[in-house]
Design goal:
It is a single chain. The protein is an alpha/beta fold. The chain has two domains: 435 residues, Up-down Bundle (Amino acid/polyamine transporter I); 167 residues, no CATH class. 59% of the residues lie in helices and 10% in strands. The chain is built from 27 helices and nine strands. The strands form two sheets. A seven-stranded mixed beta sheet has the order 1-6-7-5-4-8-9. A two-stranded antiparallel ribbon has the order 2-3. α1 crosses α15 and α8 runs antiparallel to α18.
Length: 630
Amino acid sequence: MDSISTPENEFNRSPKGPFLVLAIGALGVIYGDIGTSPLYALQTAFSDTVGLAITPEHVYGLISMFIWGLTSIVTVKYVMVVMRASNNGEGGTLALSALATRFLKGRSRRVVVLVSMLGISLFAADGVLTPSISVLSAMEGMSFVTPNATKYEVPGAIVILTILFAVQRWGTGGIGKIFGPVMILWFVMIAALGVNGIMKHPEILNSLNPYFAYQLALKFPVQSFVALGAVTLCITGVEALYADLSHFGRRPINMSWLVVVFPALALCYLGQGGVILSNASVINNPFFALVPSGYELPVVILATLATIVASQAVISGMYTIVHQSMLVGFLPWMKVRHTSKTIRGQITIPVITFLMYIGVMAAVIGFGSSARLANAYGLTVTGTLVCTTFLAVIVARKYWKWSIWRCTLVFVPIGIVDLLFLSANASKFFDGAWFTVAIAVGLFFVIWSWSKGFKLLLERITAHPISLPSFLDTVATAGDRRVPGTGVFLSESVDMAPRPLIEMFRRFGCMFEQTILLTVTTVDTPFVERVDRWQAVKIKRGLWQVNFCYGFAERPEVPKTLAECALTFPIDLETTTYFIGRFLPTMPTRLKQTLGLRLFVLMHRSSPGPAQFYGMPEDQTVTMMTRIDI
C-alpha cells in the first residue's frame, strides 16, 4: 500500500505583528474584566458583612490587601509562572490539561480530566456574572450625574446587554478595532483619577507597605478573612491572561500588565482609599467619588464603553472554550457560525449566546445592583484559580521536569493563597454565591454526562466491528462492482469498515468508482501543522484510507482539507457524496442507569450531528441512522 502525507508547509501559530500593536490589542481584549473591577470592588470591602470601621489603619490595610493581592495572584502566579505553560502557543484550561495528561495514564489521567472539566465549568459560571456586574456598576454612576437616574440603572443595563448579545450573530470584528483605544483611555483615566484621590490624602501611600495588611489580619483576623472575598473582586478576569496566550503572545501580555494595567489599577485603588479617608460618606461608590465635579457624564460614558469591552471579551472567550470543548468531546456538537471570512477564530454559537443572555438577565434582574452581585462573585473565580494551580503543578513536574523541592518552593505559597481566597469566598455562599455555584455544578454535570455517555456509545458501536480486511474479502468474493463518482465514508476507526459503506454494499452490491474511508481525529495540541494535517493510504485501485488530524482549537473543515488531497488522488468536490453513520442511543429504561445517561441521550438526539460540525455540504451528505441500546 502506498502512503502519502501532506506537503510541508509553513505554519506558524506565533502571534504576528509589531510588539506595540500586540500589546495594545491585549489591553483591549484581555484586561477589560480586571480593568473595570475598580468600579465595584472596594466598596464591597467596607460592607456590613465585613464589619470594618472606616479608620486610617483599616483603609491602609484593605488597600494593601488589594495591591498585594494583585501582585501575588496576577504578577507572581500568572505572569511569572503559569504563562510559561504554553501548549504550542496556546493557553487556557484545556491547553494546560492537555499538557498535563500527555504524561499521565489511568486514574491520574482521569483525575486531571475531571479537574479540567471543573475548571471549564467554573470559568463559564464566572463569565455569566462579568457582563452583569460590569455594565450595572457603570450604570450606577448615572446617579452622580442626576439623582433621579437611580430607577433607570437596571433597565439601562438590560438595554445595553440586550443590544450586545443581539449583535453577536453578525460578529464583532468591526467594533473590535476600537477595543484597544477605549481601554487605553480607560486606564489613563483611572490612573489620573487615582492620582487625584491620592493628592487628597497622600498618607494613603502607606498602603504600599504589606505590613499594614499583616497588621490588619493580626488584629482583626475574622474581618480580614471575610474581606478577602472583596479583594477577590480585584482579580476577576485574571484567567484571560493565560487563555488568550495564543492571540497576543506572552511578552506583549506581560508587558501590558506590568507597564499599563497594574500601575493604573494600583493608583486607582490608592486614590479610592484617599477619597474615603477624606470623606467617609462616599463609601457606597468610591470610584465615582474620585471624579471632579462636571466630569461625571464623560466618565460614565467611558466606563460604560469599557464594561461593554469587558463583556464582549468574556462572551468571545466563552465561544472559544465551548468550541474547544466540543472538539475534545466534553460537549455535544452545536451549530457554529463563523462571522469572519479572514479570521477563523471569530465565531458565534447561537445556543451559547441564548443561554448566556438568559443567565445575564437573571443576574441583573434578580440581584438588581452591583453590590449584591459582588456577593455572588468570587467563589467560581477562586475555584478556577485552584484548578489552574493543580494542573500547573503537574505540568511543572512532568513537562518542565522541575524537582520536588522547586515545585514545593513555588507552588505551596501559591496554593496557600488560592485556598485562603477560596475559603473566604465560600462564606458568601448564602449571600448570592450559590447562583454561580449552581451554574457551575449544572455545567459540570452536562460535561460529565456527555463525556461518559459518548464513551459508552463508542464502546457499543465498536463492540461487534467488521474489520476492513474482512469486508474487502467479502467485496472481492461478491464481485467488485463500481458506480461512477466519489464517496466519502466517515469511519470511527481505521481498522473498521464504516457502517454506511457496509449498508450500501449489502443493499446495492457495489461501491463508488473512488471510495474514501475517512477518519477525523482531534489531538491534545491546539493546532496541527499542515504537514501533519492529513495522511492518505492507497488500499487498492479506487480505494483510499485517509486520516484528517485537527488540534483542539481548530475548526475541522473536511471539504477544505479534502481539496488539499487533490494532488494525491483526483477528487471533484462538487460531485462528491458524503456518507455518515448517525448512531441514535435509545433512552435507558433500567432504574440502575443514571440521570446523566438520560441527559446524554437527550443532548445527542438534539445535537446537529457531525455533518454540520465538519462543514460538509447538506445537499451532498447522506446520513444513515442506526439505533443502539446503551
